[in-house]
Design brief:
heterodimer; A: Alpha-Beta Plaits; 2 domains; six-stranded mixed β-sheet; B: alpha/beta; 13 helices; binds adenosine-5'-diphosphate; binds magnesium ion; CobQ/CobB/MinD/ParA_Nub-bd_dom (chain B); MinD_FleN (chain B); ATP-binding (chain B); cell division (chain B); nucleotide-binding (chain B)
């Protein structure tokens, strides 16, 4: 290879990749302007599910709002959001909100289409009193609360590095290995009947009852309702064993199957 | 019906071109009319390994652009009646290969050949994608090391989602070819074992080609290593071709050679 072609190759070596990604994003859809009530209702939600509101990026949707919104009111609403652990990243609405977005240093996204569904922020179970004395022969976990309707997605082929699969509104069931570099997302539970070597994020819209089941835990990351553990921590226990992962308080609990 | 087989890997330098030359030649020697298509625009290694670089007049891009016809462009191999090579273009312009052009050429080749072996460029970008898009079967060439296995895994993801067969809800038949396998280094824990790689990729094993001096020697002479039937790599490639044709052949060259006293003293191989 001549020096010339070497240079050429380096020149063409990509420095970045443009990719079509899919992010799950929570929308805060404003229906009317009432900062006081907004603050109070938001505080109630936070109390129900504190983990859901830790640095959660949100888009403030203004499409439904019929009242005029001033710079000052918007700034007030944004700071209420931040006080409660939300990170507003953009506004959503028609062109008439562009100046407002600019003044607030927010990106303006075009108005939404249908297909958005309300998130039921799952209430956290009140700290359970007695029956938590971990019986040794752990009984099959009590049937977890059924995932929201829409059931789920069944995948029968290996999920390879670079692939992402999202089961919206339900469970994700994979009957094959999940490679390192692959990503599984589900609003409900995730089952992997094979080794789990990639990332698995259950309860991505905040369902704290969601669980992850796999035949061999070799994951890069597991997460339930935003609480996560990376491989470095996972390796310390039950590595390569069949396990289920659930959320207890704000910690992930890993139990052998 | 003609079969299109892509030889692909993601990672470069793992043995795709060596494998394309060996498998193409092996199929031709067994009586199948075969053409090996070099998709590696700008590099053009295949004609060197096949020893026909001095006879290249037109190339794949000329053919697509209509500057030449099929007869003028295909190079007939000197060793086998049944074997032809479609050389890659030396042009720097990677966009010279268009999906429509590639499809047209492959369709024309299908009328005249039993097997079309596509030697893919490295990477997971356009060139590699075009080489695999029309394939019926894929030989995924992997070296026994983590980065190569990861790249092969990604390629398998593309085969199962971004190929024409995948788009039509059909499957590409996948084969794992583990090359540059060095049993001593596996025993020392410096390389992944056959079992490790099979476990990660979970596709059927077509063959294991040992790391071998014979490969370099053959490519310097412009003779596909499968013609060297005394060599371990040549024999391993022959076995792989038999398996590709559906025969059940036991795997060889998986164990380290026990070195005798003399070999140990003189460090022979
Ligand atoms: N089994 C093998 N043993 C030793 N060297 C090999 C073997 N297979 C390939 N090589 C060498 O590795 C290098 C890359 O091979 P090549 O077939 O050109 O890879 P690719 O087409 O994937 O880039 C070449 O120098 C080749 O001689
Ligand atoms: Mg090559």
């Amino acid at each position: 290879m001549t020096a010339d072609t070497t240079l050429d190759l380096l020149d063409n070596d990509p420095v970045f990749h443009l990719k079509g990604g899919m992010l799950t994003m929570t929308l805060v859809e404003l229906i009317r302007l009432a900062p006081e009530q907004f603050a109070r209702q938001l505080a109630e939600k936070v109390e129900q599910a504190p983990n859901f509101f830790v640095d959660t990026p949100v888009v403030i949707a203004l499409d439904k709002l019929s009242e005029p919104l001033s710079d000052m009111t918007l700034r007030h609403l944004l700071s209420i959001c931040r006080d409660h652990g939300l990170q507003p990243v953009a506004l959503r609405g028609g062109e008439d909100f562009r100046a407002l977005a600019g003044n607030a240093d927010m990106v303006l996204l075009p108005p939404g289409r249908q297909r958005e569904k309300p998130i039921e922020v799952a209430a956290e179970p009140a700290p359970k009193p007695a029956p938590k004395a971990e019986p040794a022969p752990a009984p099959a976990p009590a049937a977890p609360a059924p995932a929201p309707a829409g059931s789920g997605k069944i995948i029968t082929e290996p999920v390879r590095g670079g692939q992402q699969i999202y089961a919206r509104g339900g469970d994700l069931i994979v009957l094959a290995p999940v490679s390192a570099g692959a990503e599984l997302l589900a609003d409900g539970h995730i089952h992997v009947y094979g080794p789990l070597r990639g990332r698995a994020l259950a309860g991505v819209t905040g369902d704290r009852q969601a669980r992850i089941f796999c035949q061999s835990l070799e994951a890069e990351l597991v997460s339930i309702a935003g609480q996560y553990k990376v491989a470095e921590d996972l390796r310390k226990q039950q590595w390569k064993a069949p396990v289920q992962i659930s959320l207890e308080g704000d910690r992930l609990k890993i139990t052998g199957l | 019906m003609a079969k299109i087989i892509v030889v692909t890997s993601g990672k470069g330098g793992v043995g795709k071109t060596t494998t394309s030359a060996a498998i193409g030649t092996g199929l031709a020697l067994r009586g199948f009319k075969t053409v090996i298509v070099d998709f590696d625009v700008g590099l053009r290694n295949l004609d060197l390994i096949m020893g026909c670089e001095r006879r290249v007049v037109y190339d794949f891009v000329n053919l697509i652009n209509g500057d030449s016809n099929m007869n003028q462009t295909l190079i007939k191999d000197k060793r086998s009646e049944n074997l032809f090579i479609l050389p890659a273009s030396q042009t720097r312009d990677k966009d010279a290969l268009t999906p429509e052009g590639v499809e047209r050429v492959l369709e024309e080749l299908k009328e005249n050949f039993d097997y079309i072996v596509c030697d893919s460029p490295a990477g997971i970008e356009k060139g590699a994608h075009l080489a695999m898009y029309f394939a019926d079967e894929a030989v995924v060439v992997t070296n026994p090391e983590v980065s190569s296995v990861r790249d092969s895994d990604r390629i398998l993801g593309l085969l199962s989602s971004k190929s024409r067969r995948a788009e039509n809800g059909e499957k590409i038949k996948e084969h794992l070819l583990l090359t540059r396998y060095n049993p001593e280094r596996v025993e020392n824990g410096e390389m992944l074992s056959v079992a490790d790689v099979e476990d990660i990729l979970s596709i059927p094993l077509l063959g294991v080609i040992p790391e071998s001096q014979a490969v370099l020697k053959a490519s310097n002479q412009g003779v596909p290593v499968i013609m060297d039937d005394k060599s371990d790599a040549g024999q391993a490639y022959s076995d792989a071709v038999e398996r590709l044709l559906g025969k059940d052949v036991a795997h060889r060259f998986l164990e380290a050679q026990k070195k005798g006293l003399l070999q140990r003293l003189f460090g022979g191989r």
